[in-house]
Design goal:
Helix content is about 70%, strand content about 0%. By secondary structure, the protein is an all-alpha fold. It is built from 16 helices and three strands. It has one domain (about 25-375). It has a three-stranded antiparallel beta sheet with strand order 1-2-3. It is a multi-pass membrane protein.
Length: about 375
């Protein structure tokens, strides 16, 4: 009866795991991830050299570290993409618990690295940002709650997810890390929408978030300074936003040439938060459009593949992961062109940073696992296969 309704499985029993994975994974999204990583290495060759010289390190010290992190990230992505939805849920919940514990110890053991916000744990010479690893685990946990609430006699999962989201947003805001807090809240809103929440409720939550922003503006000097800088009609050319804006204008359509850019010598975060400014200056609008196209391809293809899914957890978690990944990239680039206030958020797979690239690999690995082809396609597809 199952085969009559859903069609026979595309995965044959006894298949080795790698051939089975290769047949079912979204190869276009996988290729886009590899393309983003390659662009990150290419831009790192230019953006990280000034920092290495400033710190009296070998010229390509940070590029080599990025390649090392990238190799580890690709292994993590491969492992996660081979998981079943149930395994994604289990590892996500366990990862959320560990990351949440690290968030609680940040006020005691954390450091701000001169950024004005305590976001990092320094362990054995390495810095770890717990909030980066918290996001995919948060999505898995809340999707589990929401999916369980749809079962007959199920728990009030939507309420549990709302409480979880509120606690996480509060913890992140206290660091203060309003960028990651807004990203977590956005992911929760997307999942709640996919799970069938009424628009009135979603608008109410958005209104509460706006009120929280007004409160944060009056209570946090760090937050107020960034908002004032964003709203100012004039840009101080000596600030990071000023340098980034000038670099994007200088780059034009084709860029000033490989290695000819100057913004990387002025921007302290040229290799992380403002790496898109380096891309725009040296390679021009062409490179920026290519990067945007890669992100859009991953998000759009993932959402279209999720439309075929009938498992609530897979559909809700996949939407949360895809949208949070895309919006993080959007926020990073929006800050660089002054469409958004400064957030201190990296560009996934492109910016330098071990926490960023490995957490992005976890996110995309889980997304690839949830969007793999399964024997539950649409009826029209099943009938076409039977002709």
């Amino acid at each position: 009866m199952t085969e009559m309704v859903f069609g026979t499985a595309q995965v044959r029993a006894g298949d080795p795991i790698l051939p089975r994975w290769w047949r079912t994974v979204d190869k276009w999204s996988l290729a886009c991830v590899l393309g983003l990583f390659a662009m990150g290495i290419l831009l790192g060759l230019a953006a990280s050299v000034p920092l290495a010289e400033k710190n009296n390190l070998p010229r390509f010290y940070y590029v080599e570290r990025q390649a090392m992190y990238g190799g580890l990230a690709l292994i993590v992505l491969l492992v996660f993409s081979m998981m079943s939805p149930r395994q994604v849920r289990r590892f996500g919940v366990m990862g959320f618990a560990v990351a949440l514990l690290m968030l609680f110890v940040l006020p005691v053991l954390g450091t701000d690295h001169g950024k004005g916000a305590v976001r990092w744990l320094s362990i054995a010479g390495f810095s770890l940002q717990p909030s980066e690893f918290l996001k995919p685990g948060f999505v898995a946990l809340c999707a589990w709650f929401m999916a369980a609430s749809q079962e007959v006699g199920g728990p009030p999962g939507r309420l549990y997810s709302f409480i979880t989201a509120g606690v996480i947003v509060l913890l992140l805001a206290l660091q203060p890390d309003f960028g990651q807090a807004s990203l977590v809240l956005f992911a929760w809103l997307v999942m709640y929408f996919v799970a069938g929440a009424p628009m009135v409720l979603l608008m109410g939550v958005a209104g509460m978030a706006a009120l929280g922003g007004f409160f944060a503006y009056g209570a946090s000097e760090h937050f107020a300074r960034r908002i004032n800088g964003f709203l100012s009609p004039e840009i101080d050319p000596r600030t990071q936003i000023g340098y980034a804006t000038n670099a994007i204008q200088e780059g034009g359509f084709f860029g000033v040439g490989v290695g000819e850019g100057t913004v990387k010598w002025s921007l302290p975060d040229a290799h992380t938060d403002f790496i898109i400014a380096v891309a725009a200056e040296e390679y021009g609008l062409i490179m920026v459009l290519a990067i945007i196209a890669l992100y859009c391809t991953i998000v759009v293809r993932s959402l279209f593949r999720l439309l075929k899914e009938r498992d609530p957890f897979t559909r809700i978690a996949g939407a949360g992961l895809a949208c949070s990944f895309g919006v993080q990239a959007l926020i990073n680039m929006g800050v660089a062109v002054r469409l958004l206030p400064a957030k201190g958020m990296t560009l996934p797979f492109v910016s330098y940073g071990g926490s960023s690239i490995i957490a992005s690999a976890v996110t995309l690995g889980a997304l690839l696992a949830l969007t793999r082809t399964r024997p539950q396609g649409e009826i029209a597809e099943i009938l076409r296969r039977r002709r």
